[in-house]
Specification:
alpha/beta; Rossmann fold; 6-stranded mixed sheet; 10 helices; 34% helix; globular
């Protein structure tokens, strides 16, 4: 299709649609909004402003490691506050967030890290055995950042070299001069699962994420009075975009950490206590939540907009 350029507008069309704009907006306009996260079966809280401060520290740490625009940085983690921080710190310096699906086989996960040419990998302590299993085949990886509340002296791993997420942030500045990342730059790299052959890489641009966020926010009607429970894995196509929507609209968010089907009661109780209004999940999961407990009737969740389920399409005839 031929592109036709008419009379130039005066609408600042050259301003880049990148994700750094979203988190700066949230920190500026909703600094005291709550972000909850679960670790060691306890709920902890911080705010958008505190999260943003830590993101700037992470960005400084990445620059100190020598990470450059275009580098791919892997993340193997549950739905955590640290994963949230990496959602913006890594792409914010022009690097690409490699979303490592912890449900893939070690063979496929090794292929993903190798094919994308990941330079560093951030890994939750509980998932160290997974990365240790694939480390010998990772020719481009220069180091591993372990995310844990334990001091590095208590972490046992065969990975080398390793850095400790929290200990590294202690030494970093809270000031960071964000780059104006060009909007067609790859924000993230997601690799398919369940397809024939090897996983296929899909690289989402900042512009794609930004426009999808605007569309989804309007479609499901999110606002700053909502509370989103981030259930969809954050390594699975950006958790369907719900994290970015919450940031754009200044909504309260909850990161449940690691959970399993046996822990649905805990999640249901969390929905009621924190007045969750929107959550994501497959129809099977969301239906089980409603069936397992009548307590959801006490909450503000409604069947109309409470769960944002993936649609199961019918195979073509």
């Amino acid at each position: 299709m031929k592109i036709v350029k008419g009379c130039p507008s005066t609408s600042m069309n050259d301003y880049q649609l990148n994700t750094t704009t979203l988190i700066r907006h949230a920190a500026r306009n909703f600094p005291d909004q709550d972000i909850l996260y679960r670790k060691n079966n306890e709920i902890h809280r911080y705010t958008y402003n505190e999260a943003y401060t830590r993101m700037k520290k992470v960005a400084n740490f990445l620059k100190r490691l020598g990470v450059r625009a275009g580098d791919k940085i892997g993340v193997l983690d549950w739905n955590s506050h640290r994963h949230f921080e990496l959602y913006f710190a890594i792409p914010g310096i022009g690097a690409t967030l490699l979303q490592m699906n912890l449900r893939l086989s070690t063979d496929d996960l090794s292929y993903v890290a190798g094919h994308s040419e990941a330079r560093y990998i951030f890994v939750d302590e509980s998932l160290l055995p997974v990365v240790e299993a694939i480390a010998p085949s990772l020719k481009t990886v220069e180091g591993y950042i372990v995310m844990s509340d334990k001091p590095i002296s208590e972490i046992k791993t065969t990975l080398s070299p390793i850095y400790h997420y929290e200990e590294e942030l202690i030494h970093e500045s809270t000031d960071f001069d964000w780059l104006m990342v060009e909007e067609t730059t790859a924000y993230s790299a997601c690799y398919t699962s369940g397809t024939t052959g090897r996983p296929k890489g899909v690289y989402y641009s900042h512009r794609t994420i930004y426009l999808h966020t605007m569309s989804l926010a309007a479609n499901i009607g999110v606002n700053c009075h909502d509370c989103l429970l981030v259930l969809v894995p954050m390594f699975h196509v950006q958790s369907w975009g719900l994290v970015h929507v919450a940031v754009m609209m200044g909504a309260k968010m909850i990161f449940p950490g690691r959970y399993a089907s046996e822990g649905i009661r805990l999640l249901v109780n969390l929905m009621v206590e924190e007045k969750v209004t929107i959550a994501g999940g497959s129809p099977v999961f969301s239906c089980r939540c409603f069936i397992i407990s009548e307590r959801l009737k006490q909450s503000r969740i409604s069947a109309k907009r409470g769960f944002y389920p993936v649609q199961q399409s019918r195979p073509s005839p």
